[in-house]
Design brief:
The complex is a heterodimer of chains A (358) and B (359). Chain A is α/β, with parallel strands linked by helices and 358 residues long. Helix content of chain A is 42%, strand content 14%. The longest helix of chain A is centred in the middle third of the chain and has 21 residues. The two termini of chain A are 37 Å apart. In chain B, the strands form two sheets. Chain B has an eight-stranded parallel β-sheet with strand order 8-7-6-3-2-1-10-9. The two termini of chain B are 37 Å apart. Classes of the chains: A alpha/beta (358), B alpha/beta (359). At the A-B interface, α8 and α9 of A face α8 and α9 of B.
Chain lengths: 358, 359
Amino acid sequence: MSAFTSKFADELIANAAYIGTPGKGILAADESTGTIGKRLASINVENVETNRRALRELLFTAPGALPCLSGVILFEETLYQKSSDGKLFVDILKEGGVLPGIKVDKGTVELAGTNGETTTQGLDGLGERCKKYYEAGARFAKWRAVLKIGENEPSEHSIHENAYGLARYAVICQENGLVPIVEPEILVDGSHDIHKCAAVTERVLAACYKALSDHHVLLEGTLLKPNMVTPGSDSAKVAPEVIAEHTVRALQRTVPAAVPAIVFLSGGQSEEEATKNLNAMNQLKTKKPWSLSFSFGRALQQSTLKTWAGKEENVKAAQEALYVRCKANSEATLGTYKGDAKLGDGAAESLHVKDYKY
Amino acid sequence: MSCFKSKYADELIANAAYIGSPGKGILAADESTGTIGKRFASINVENVELNRRALRELLFTTPGALQYISGIILFEETLYQKTASGKPFVDVMKEAKVLPGIKVDKGTVELAGTNGETTTIGLDGLGDRCKKYYEAGARFAKWRAVLKIGANEPSELAIHENAYGLARYAVICQENGLVPIVEPEILVDGSHDIEKCAYVTERVLAACYKALNDHHAILEGTLLKPNMVTPGSDSKSRAEPKVIAEHTVRALQRTVPAAVPAVVFLSGGQSEEQATVNLNAINQLKGKKPWSLTFSYGRALQQSTLKAWGGKEENVENAQKAFLARAKANSEATTGAYKGDAQLGEGASESLHVKDYKY
């Protein structure tokens, strides 16, 4: 086999498969301190440790939410935080049948000589950090590579750099017992049509899987977190069925069947859009040898945040809002979402931020 | 989409899917004049056009056999030949719903600076040749790339050259209405174990699909013809069909996109019976298999037939029975239904391995 032999192989394979369990998906709650600051600012909440802790406690203890989740991605600070009655978040998650995950990249930097294209950093000492995170209870990791569509973008250079960075990160994770989520996000910014997005997505994913093969990654112990295939943010919208068709076809052309699950990012989609699109994919009748699920951040938390607004008396209602979105997305992984989720305040609101950095 | 727009897209997709129909597979009857000469020599038959025509007629008119065949790969000479009663072979095939295919490569040449590694030639004027073949009735093509396993082989150079040659050939075919069979054969020669073969197969296939993506091939309109994953011919270890099946399917799961409609295995040096039993085990395996898994056999479909024929008119009926038996057995193998009960013709268990096989 072209995969290297990791002593964690069986565990990686089991955990990756578990994350793709039908009816479950990932809550991406790994906003860095800077990024969560922007979210908190939007609801007039001070960006201090107690508030960050309070928000995550609200999310992880929301009644009915954890059964809809197979994993939660955390930022490093959160991995070590506890609930107000002193219980470690990782223990709350584990008891709820949810695998803790950890964001391990250190953000993007520009590639010299390109038109604002970037590569992701974080490889230095990554092995040691992964060991530490595994000891703290993490069982999967996430690394976000970013590409954009433009006149001459993404360039072959940026595709190569990002693909090979992802592959190196992936192998280091597997050497240390963490299932790597491979995330090559192609930003939705631009006025291109859905065909252009499809062409770029296929090119980028093909490069990723070649890089993963070159690096001897055990595909059965990885997850893919791609963008859905959609028109650019400045272009006319299309129906969920059209997005589903183009997205699944792109995946059929590039993602080996050995990959157990694909967990979509929501990009700038509203909560309701993201759910409807995922639902349409799971209703499509065609070859789909991987689970198709979610790894949503904004598209799971937007209404919750607005409802909470940082106030203790709003926690119950905010948790209810989270449960509504979790359940809706859980149904979407089975193709049974009827579009009837009680739309929370902001559920239909676009979450697109131009040239999103977080 | 990353693929180019071919005016033949729908037809390519339909034909590729048809070739992978359950219960059917490909007869590889594309031996070049030189290669068929070697076969004839082994049964004391003179290598003249008449005999080459007679052998192919024997195969293509076997009563009841073509229902198990979705495509036949032909050598150029055969594409234009007719039955004794004057019917073009391509018409015989069409009437039996068998797609005619055509070998388009021009053999291998050595790569300078390597230890006997090769690349395949045939790209010059390929577009025009494909057009001609399409007009003559061909609907798919085949190009054989060859790699070997050794201490330092296959080298990155050999993998790259062969993968990109295959991708260029594939797109030229699609531009001209022919479904390309992508064949990156890793020779079975050597003393390596099955794990080594799996490792190399996965590396080679990953390179092929990257090359096909770079060249904008329409994967839904292609077929893959790989080796099964087995121990080397000189290996001390033998592998059970189930083990071959597991390693083979896993290698494909790790590299072959679901968009590819069918994988049509080459038989390499396997005996007729081995090739059938292994294909059967592959189809019995439980696991993700988003492509049909069928056969594209040459020697493994014709060995007993050739021996039974011996070039003699009076043996044609028996020879055809032998061919029918293998065709039916392999058809059953595509659905995992083969019970190992095919009447073994003379030579059916005989290994067909020839060291460092060139054809």
